[in-house]
Amino acid sequence: MPRPRTLARTWRSPTPTGPSNVTLPPKPLLCALLVAACAQPPTLPAQADSFPAADGEILITHFVGASVQLEYLDLVIHVDPWGRGDYADAKSADVILITDTPADHLDPELISQLRTSGTTVIVPADPEDARDEGGAERLRQVVGADVMNNGESVELDVQPDGTFDITIEAVAMYDLIPGAPFHARGEGNGYIVTLGGVRIYLSGVTECTPEVQAIRDVDIAFMPMNLPNGRMPPAAAAECVKGLDPKVVYPYHYREQPIDVFVDALRGGPIEVRVRDWYPAN
Questions:
Q1: Please, which residues bridge with residue 250 across strands?
Q2: Using CA atoms, how far apart are residues 57 and 51, in angstroms rounded to an integer?
C-alpha cells in the first residue's frame, strides 16, 4: 500500500521526432479507431507513454473518455477517473483533478477507491441547474474536495523541504456555440499541470475559447472533440492545437468523431500526435 501523505498547498493567482509526427496504437486498435468496417477489436490493457522531465520521466496512462493517470517520480495524479475504464492496475492518487460534473468526468465511487487519507481532490464549482445532470449531488459525495475556480492556481509541495512541487492552474472550460448540453463559463475547469518543468494542458470539454488561445509554453496538450457535434469538430480542434503549439498532443473525448481528420490536419508538422484508444471494446 502506498503511504498516505498530505500535500502542503499554496493558493495563488495564475500567471498568464523522426520522419512521422504521428504515433499510433497497435494495429488492431488502429483498426478500431480509423476503419469502421473492422469487427470486434480486442480490448488491450493501457500502456504508459513517457515524456522527459527534469529528474526523470513523466508516465502517461490513458483509460477511457478523458481519464488520464500521470506519474512523476513517486507522485500520481488522476484526471477525470471514470469506472467504465479498466483501473485494475491503476495506482492510488496523490492528486485527483476533476474537470466537469457529468458522470463520465466525476465518478465518486472510483474517486473513493483511488484516494487515500492524504489525497488532494480538486473539483470545479457547483454547476448551474440548467446543466446539472446530477452533478451537484455527485460533488456532494466527494467529501473534503477543494474547489478551484477559473483563473486560480495552487502550488502543492510534495517534499517537506520544498525541493519538488507541482503547480496546477485552472483554465476556463466552456462552449461558445449555443446548444444542449451546454458547458457554461465558470462551471468546469481545464488544468495546466507543471511537473518537473513540463507543462501539461488537460483541456476537459471545451471549445477554443480566448482563454485557451492565450495559453503559452505547453509541452503536452490533451484536446477534445467536443459534444454535441458541431462544437470543436476535429478540424477545429487541430487548428486550436496549432495555436497552442505543444510538443505532443493527445486527441481525446472524441467518441464517434473522425479522428483521422484531426491526425491528417497535423500530419507532417512539428507537433507529435499520439493517437490512443480512449474507447476500448467492452
A1: 222
A2: 6
What is the three-class DSSP state of 247? coil
| pLDDT one-digit tens code per residue, 139-175 | 999 999 999 999 999 999 876 555 668 999 999 999 9
Indicate the residue type of 102: P
Distance of CA 28 to the CA centre of its chain: 24
Q: Is 122 exposed, middle or buried (0-12, 13-18, 19+ CB in 10 A)?
A: buried
Domain residue limits at 16? 8-34+50-274
Q: Would residue 45 count as lying in a domain?
A: no
Q: How many domains does the chain have?
A: 1
Cα-based distances in Å from 184 to 129, 232, 264? 11, 15, 30
pLDDT digits (tens, 9 = 90+) for 84-142: 999 999 999 999 999 999 899 999 999 999 999 999 999 998 776 556 678 888 999 99
In a domain, 42, yes or no: no
137-176 as b/e: b if 16+ CB within 10 A: ebbeebeebeebebebbbbbbbeeeeebbbbbbbbbbbbe
**Which residues are registered as beta bridge partners of 167?**
155, 194
The C-alpha cell 498530505 sits at 6
Is residue 269 situated within a structural domain?
Answer: yes
In a domain, 185, yes or no: yes
Sign of the alpha-carbon torsion through 112, 189, 135, 79: negative
User: What CATH number should be reported for the domain holding residue 249?
Assistant: 3.60.15.10
- Packing angle of the helix pair 259-266, 234-244 (nearest 10 deg): 40
